[in-house]
Design goal:
The complex is a heterodimer. By secondary structure, chain A is α/β, with parallel strands linked by helices. Chain A has helices at 7-15, 43-56, 88-102, 104-108, 126-141, 151-157, 185-198, 244-251, 313-326, 375-388, 401-404, 411-414, and strands spanning 33-39, 61-64, 80-81, 119-123, 146-150, 173-177, 181-182, 202-204, 209-214, 221-226, 229-238, 258-269, 277-280, 285-289, 294-305, 335-345, 352-355, 361-365. Chain A has two domains: 7-110 and 184-256 and 347-414, FAD/NAD(P)-binding domain, CATH 3.50.50; 119-181 and 259-345, D-Amino Acid Oxidase, Chain A, domain 2, CATH 3.30.9.10. Chain A has twelve helices and 18 strands. In chain A, the strands form three sheets. In chain A, strands 1, 2, 8, 9, 10, 11, 17 and 18 form an eight-stranded mixed sheet that branches. Chain A has an eight-stranded mixed sheet with strand order 5-6-4-13-14-15-12-16, with helices on both faces. A two-stranded antiparallel ribbon of chain A has the order 3-7. In chain A, helix 2 (43-56) packs across helix 10 (375-388). The longest helix of chain A is centred in the first third of the chain and has 16 residues, at 126-141. Chain B is mainly β. Chain B has one helix at residues 36-43; strands spanning 3-6, 10-13, 18-22, 52-58, 66-72, 78-83. Chain B is 9% helix and 37% strand. Chain B has a single domain, classed as Folate-binding fold (2-Layer Sandwich). Chain B has a four-stranded antiparallel sheet, with no helix packed on it. In chain B, strands 1-2 form a two-stranded antiparallel ribbon. Chain B has one helix and six strands. The chains are: A alpha/beta, B mainly beta.
Chain lengths: 419, 89
């Protein structure tokens, strides 16, 4: 592939002052119509476009992004990739995603910096340890690489854990997924964008969708109205994360979702102190250390519906209290930044994927706080769904119909986690 | 931090309250003849607007009364508070 990134190119450009790098993707004017229009230029939208072109030969594709690509939740999450889900449907899907992440840098010719540093979820009581043992046994039966660790093993992995025997929430051990880790989030966006562009996909930024056109007779979608004019579409894929309900309303139907603000935080850079992801479902905190040295952390959702990408102070206080209870040594670390993304949740905390009530209009939404880890498998299965008109086998259980059929995939209850 | 005017206790910090989702959702009846789709609409398919939303709150760490609030989901401004049983408009 001409223009592929390589060590040789890096050396050549280093010798010439790095002035010779070409743009990684084009910025074309929108054409009047496409075979497929994907709404949303985040990880899922761009991955879908890439797999449509690569796996299905559908190259007359546009990805419409209202701001800049990766400027929404893909650029706001805490970059954790894992597959510790309890139900077989979730386990199969999310483990496929981890597997795709493992090969993604080679696949895209773009270093996404997947660091499989492992993730430790600590347990604070005998009851919780029993619960986690049940989860781990279930996950292992589903082929996921989870294991239990006792207190000594947990402390060996993460020496900073609260050492106090009189801690309000003592640490008794936990469960570990060693294949879990962190990924450079911007690189996922840029890698998919570059790879999709090279296969002929048009990535159109600063192009907000303002309406959905439907055939007055058949009701099928025929195109989208945008801030850059009407764009015809044979098929439309919805991949806009927290604003899915807004776009669905344009198309004339409701989704079983509610949008919430989910906050994240980054501290000042520290020397290496934490070489894995550590979380607690009791303290509602997860934290890792980025390559730049900052602690990246998050916790619970803000507790009411919101489209404000800010986050509220009571939740901030709760998240940071949880961090300090789990790792008291971080109490004097200063935060550099705080932000929030808008995440859409269904009642069972599982995504809503596949067909919609509108013909040729397809759904990729309801990821809650767990969309980033799902990007490769989300894109792969959504591309299949859009190209063939039938839901991919891995996402059949996550259909919109499951709410009518009372066939929820209740990860919120099963794993005791938000997502 | 929201300042929510409980109809019984007056303005209090949001940490005293718990949000109860969309207001004015009527349970379909009679239960034995409600279709699966109508149950799903009642249970799951609620309004999720970017803008004004009528929702229920409970003053969980105060008088423990439920009431209704109209709140903007972007600015979080509250423009109206009314008791259960009072009309929406």
């Amino acid at each position: 592939m001409s223009g592929a990134y390589s060590a040789l190119q890096l050396v050549r450009n280093a010798l010439t002052g790095h002035r010779g790098w070409p743009k990684a993707w084009r910025s074309p004017q929108p054409r009047p119509a496409y075979d497929v229009v994907i709404i949303g230029g985040g990880g899922h939208g761009l991955a879908t476009a890439y797999y449509l072109a690569r796996n299905h030969g559908v190259r007359n594709v546009a990805v419409l992004e209202k701001g800049w690509i990766g400027g929404g939740n893909t650029g706001r999450n805490t970059t954790i990739v894992r597959s510790d889900y309890y139900y077989p449907e979730s386990a199969a899907f999310f483990d496929r995603s981890v597997t795709l992440y493992e090969g993604l840098s080679q696949d895209l010719n773009f270093n996404v910096m997947f660091s499989q540093r492992g993730m430790l979820t600590i347990g604070h009581s005998r009851g919780e340890m029993d619960f986690r043992r049940k989860l781990v046994n279930g996950m292992r039966l589903n082929g996921i690489d989870l294991e239990m660790v006792d207190e000594a093993q947990a402390r060996a992995m993460c020496p900073l854990l609260n050492p106090s025997p009189s801690a309000r929430y003592p640490i008794l051990g936990g469960m570990v997924q060693r294949r879990a880790g962190t990924v450079r989030h911007d690189a996922v966006v840029w890698g998919y964008a570059r790879a999709a562009d090279r296969l002929g996909v048009d990535i159109i930024q600063n192009c907000a969708v303002t309406g959905v056109r439907r055939d007055p007779v058949s009701g099928a979608v025929t195109g989208v109205e945008t801030t850059r004019g009407l764009i015809g579409a044979g098929k439309v894929g919805l991949a806009v994360a927290g604003h899915s309900s807004v776009v669905a309303a344009m198309a004339g139907f409701r989704l079983p979702l509610r949008s919430y603000a989910l906050q994240a935080f980054v501290s000042e850079p520290l020397k290496p102190v934490l070489d894995m992801v550590v979380s607690s479902s009791v303290l509602n905190i997860y934290v890792s250390q980025s390559d730049k040295g900052g602690l990246v952390l998050g916790g619970n959702l803000d507790p009411y519906a919101s489209y404000a990408q800010r986050g509220n102070p009571p939740t901030m206080e709760a998240v940071l209290s949880g961090l300090i209870e789990m790792i008291p040594a971080f109490s004097r670390v200063r935060l550099l930044r705080q932000w929030a993304g808008i995440v859409d949740y269904a009642h069972d905390s599982s995504p809503v994927l596949g067909l919609s009530p509108v013909a040729n209009f397809f759904l990729n939404c309801g990821w809650g706080g767990g969309g980033f880890k799902a990007i490769p498998a989300g894109g792969e299965t959504f591309a299949h769904t859009v190209a063939t008109g039938q839901p991919h086998p891995l996402i059949k259980a996550f259909s919109l119909d499951r709410f009518r059929d009372q066939a929820l995939v209740d990860e919120a209850a099963a794993a005791g986690i938000e997502h | 931090m929201l300042l929510i005017a409980c109809p019984w206790c007056g303005p209090r910090d949001e940490t005293e309250f718990v949000n109860g989702g969309e207001a004015h959702i009527d349970r379909p009846t009679p239960a034995e003849s409600v279709s699966d789709a109508d149950w799903a609409a009642y249970l799951f398919f609620h309004d999720n607007p970017r803008g004004w939303l009528a929702e229920r709150w409970v003053h969980a760490f105060g008088c423990r009364q439920w009431f209704n609030v109209e709140r903007d989901t972007v600015t979080h401004e509250i423009r109206r508070v009314w008791r259960l049983g009072e009309p929406r408009a």
